[in-house]
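Practice problem: predict the structure.
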Amino acid sequence: MEKMVINEVFDLLREIKAVDSESEFSRDWLGRSECYLRTLRFKGGEPSVATIAICASKLQHYGHQLVNQTRHREIGQRFLTLSQQCHAHINAKSKALWLGV
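Answer:
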C-alpha cells in the first residue's frame, strides 16, 4: 500500500519535533481521538476525507505563517506542499464518489 499523505505529515511533524507521538498527532492535528491512526493501521483503513481536510487546513494555515519567517521558510513550504497533496487526495476521493467508481 502506498504511503498515505497523513503519514507523511506525521513523519514531518515528528521530525521537526512538533509532535511526539501518533496519539498527539491524531488529537492535535487531525481533531480525532488519540487512537485514530493506530486504529486505521490495525484495521487497514484510510483516513476520512473530513480528517484529511482538517489536516490540510491546519497545514495551510501554519504554512502561510511560516513562509513569512526567514528562519522557518523551508518548513512552511513543506507544510504548503503537504496541504496541496491533502487537497489532491480529497479531490480524487470526492470525484471517485460522484463518478461512482
